[in-house]
Design goal:
The complex is a heterodimer of chains A (about 550) and B (about 190). With about 550 residues, chain A is α/β, with parallel strands linked by helices. Chain B has one domain. The two termini of chain B are about 25 Å apart. Classes of the chains: A alpha/beta (about 550), B mainly alpha (about 190).
Chain lengths: ~550, ~190
């Protein structure tokens, strides 16, 4: 695939058709769709354009030195508190996301579940939940399905239709990934308990597709960039096509400070600093924010003006609210023979029998279970957790644990729902600043009691599964006192039909600013079951489709 | 599972707290530069970048108790102290200060309890006893983290010499794998489910 660099340069003082902030799961897709359709596009990305040849199996850099996810050392501090009346503390990447072309689609696990029809109408079917903003989406599964299929084929997904998977108009383009030992254990245990494990859908190629090669099963997916371009990130799949169109200019190292509006209230330019710190402003007919569920609301809040005193596009007050992380649980089992779950992709089987928990349990929730390595299969993270079955954490006995646990364990993980709450937010820290002098991101988050009950349910189920799998020893955890950070940043500029309780309409157009579009994790109305990236990409294809139609009608 | 609660708590302690308690957080480009230096120094048998010979001897002795050498090589053979030297050379002054004062406390205990100036001069049993006493301290958490980080990071960073750490845990450093990955998937293709 062409790795051509920027093929066109646009002057900042002439309005391009679209300026897109962010090049991740959503921004990459929209950049490709708009530019291939012949619209002039400028993409502003704060990170560098790393490519497959730049990536290494370098845990020390990526996990401990901000190689992909920047922190305070790179000038991007954050703060965290559990509630508005709780103390705020400095936090490293409580709102975690990558700073590079392709965003977090570069280093994510590749797990790629579609949402199901129920996800879009659950509040109607299941009933609303008092004290929450749990609501139906303004679109249905059927409206999104063609775009899920577009993602399958254009971006590249491996899988096999499962027993309760939502209907699809085309099969997966790539066959499922080969099963790992950890998932053989999960599958056999699941069947013993009467469940229905099936091949996990992943955005990793099991066979060559669209000019990219198949996965070589090196094991460094989650937290790492793919060294052979087998992971279907927007960096590997969409950005090259956008650049090859001749209509897309990708500007890296560019940090956006605000979106400016004209007297008529429409957006007219995006102000940013380049890598050298020089300020520029790119004029555009329309502005598209794809900066993720943390950066997008911050940018809107930073763009407050006399016309938009609460922040741009925020007449509802919903900008930054309803942050949803998804819950997670993990149970690790020790087995007599080598599992070697560190090899190949994170997960090759899922169990979706608990997608919707019985209402009679007394709480709302649902999720999925997959088999994995307990620490993403990376040596350092794994070693730090060794001794997990109650052994010492240093010395000769710790060394015995090290010898055993890395290779002889499997983890069964739960991935669960989060409810949208007005109190879980991304806001501007009132005192702390980042390297550009912008207010730092402040995260306020406490899981709803139903979210914690759901995690407890999955924790118990995965313990049962681990027992059925024949584990000699078991250990595990879930954040029973509430999460203090996550990499799923969902719901903070939700879509909806009512401008009073949503930020964008069903086509991702701001209710308040007619030439401002917002599409990324922030658009999600509900959290799904813990794997949001497929839906973010499908929404992006759909949003781009409507932007193209609007632009052709002269309505941007 | 009878010990579920106990195990879960042990598990919770194991992962995150190691990092939270550590006072070291590093900047990536500086580490790479510094690590290149440390590796060259190690190969050439040169002095350390930031540690004095006495400090290096002490950290090496601590590392050798965190992951001891027995029938297989430990942190000493893997050169953990070179990694630590490199990290400290890149740390903030307040972090270096915290480590210096932590080491001074350990040496004060060494002197008070055993009448020797250097931790490295104690017997392994005495060393383990002192380290057990310091288990709750930030100093111990930091050194433990650094020794483990040394042992299991890329060998280029100086502390996983000859991939000794990876050999210890059974991590085979290969770029590509094919089934079967381990025991449990070895008969899957024949037997299926």
């Amino acid at each position: 695939m062409a790795q051509q660099q920027t093929s066109v340069t646009y002057p900042t003082r002439e309005a391009v058709d679209f300026v897109i902030v962010g090049s991740g799961a959503a921004g990459g897709v929209i950049a490709k769709e708009l530019s291939v359709a012949g619209f002039s596009v400028v993409v502003l990305e704060q990170g560098p354009h790393l490519k497959a040849s730049d990536f290494k199996h370098d845990e020390w850099s990526y996990d401990y030195n901000g190689g992909l996810i920047w922190g305070s050392k790179q000038g991007h501090p954050q703060t965290f508190r559990k509630a508005a009346d709780q103390p705020t503390r400095p936090a490293e990447a409580a709102l975690g996301y990558a700073h590079n072309v392709g965003g977090s689609s570069v280093h994510f696990s590749g797990n790629f579940w579609r949402f199901r029809p129920i996800d879009f109408k659950e509040a109607s079917v299941r009933g609303t939940i008092s004290g929450t903003n749990f609501a139906d989406w303004p679109i249905t599964y059927d409206e999104l399905e063609p775009y899920y299929t577009k993602v399958d084929w254009e971006v590249g997904v491996s899988g096999l239709q499962g027993p309760w998977d939502p209907p699809r108009t085309r099969p997966y383009p790539c066959e499922p990934m080969p099963i790992k030992g950890s998932d053989v254990l999960l599958e056999r245990a699941g069947k013993k308990l009467g469940l229905n494990p099936y091949p996990a859908p992943v955005a990793i190629l099991s066979q060559p597709h669209n000019g990219r090669p198949a996965c070589i099963h090196c094991g460094f997916c989650n937290g790492f960039g793919c060294e052979v371009n087998a992971k279907s990130s927007s960096m590997a799949t969409m950005i090259p096509l956008a650049l090859a169109s001749g209509y897309c200019e990708l500007r890296t190292g560019c940090t956006v400070s605000r979106v400016s509006t004209r007297a008529d209230g429409k957006a007219d330019e995006v102000v940013y600093w380049d890598a050298e710190g020089e300020e520029h402003a790119q004029r555009a007919k329309a502005v598209v924010l794809c900066a993720n569920g943390a950066e997008t609301p911050r940018l809107l809040l930073l763009s407050a003006s006399a016309q938009h005193p609460q922040g741009l596009g925020n007449s509802s007050g919903f900008v930054g609210q309803n942050l949803m992380f998804n819950g997670y649980t993990s149970v690790v089992g020790l087995f007599p023979e080598p599992v070697n779950a560190y090899k190949s992709i994170p997960a090759t089987r899922v169990i979706h029998d608990y997608y919707e928990l019985d209402k009679n349990l007394g709480f709302y929730g649902g999720g999925g279970i997959d088999g994995r390595h307990y620490a993403r299969g990376t040596p350092l993270n794994s070693a730090l957790m060794s001794g997990m079955f109650g052994g010492p954490k240093w010395g000769a006995d710790y060394k015995r644990s090290l010898e055993q646990e890395f290779t002889h364990t499997a983890a069964f993980d739960g991935h669960t729902t989060s409810l949208p709450l007005a109190t879980n937010t991304v806001t501007l820290d009132p005192t702390l600043k980042d390297k550009w002098g912008r207010p730092a991101l402040r995260c306020t988050y406490m899981d709803h009691p139903d979210d914690l009950a759901t995690m407890k349910f999955f924790f118990d189920k995965t313990n049962e599964l681990m027992e059925a799998a024949g584990a000699i020893r078991q250990a595990g955890s879930y954040p029973e006192n509430g999460q203090e950070g996550n990499v799923h940043l969902l719901g903070t500029c939700r879509m909806g039909n009512d401008p009073a309780n949503s930020v964008v309409d069903k086509y991702h157009r701001s209710h308040d600013v007619p030439n401002l579009f917002i599409c990324d994790g922030s658009s999600l109305v509900t959290s799904g079951r813990g794997q949001p990236t497929m839906t973010i990409m499908a929404l992006a294809f759909r949003a781009a489709d409507h932007m193209i139609q609007s632009a052709r009608r002269g309505e941007i | 599972m009878t010990n579920a609660e106990l195990n879960r708590r042990a598990f919770l302690r194991a992962g995150g707290d190691a990092m939270k308690a550590s006072c070291i957080a590093l900047s990536f480009p500086a580490v790479l530069t510094a690590c290149g230096r440390a590796r060259q120094a190690q190969l050439a048998g040169d002095d350390f970048t930031s540690l004095s010979a006495d400090e290096a001897r002490e950290y090496d002795a601590i590392a050798a108790r965190i992951i001891p050498s027995d029938d297989t090589p430990g942190a000493r053979e893997a050169g953990a102290v070179y990694f630590i030297d490199n990290v400290i050379s890149d740390a903030f002054e307040r972090q270096r200060q915290a480590l210096r004062s932590g080491l001074a406390d350990l040496q004060a205990n060494t002197s008070n309890l055993y009448g020797k100036a250097q931790f490295a001069d104690l017997s392994p049993v005495q060393q383990d006893s002192l380290l057990t006493q310091s288990e709750g301290t930030e100093f111990f958490a930091t050194i433990r983290f650094l020794v483990i980080a040394a042992m299991f990071s890329l060998p280029e960073y100086g502390g996983n010499k000859d991939k000794l750490g990876w050999q210890l845990i059974g991590f085979e450093d290969r770029h590509a794998w094919a089934q079967p990955y381990g025991f449990y998937d070895s008969d899957y293709l024949e037997k299926g489910e």
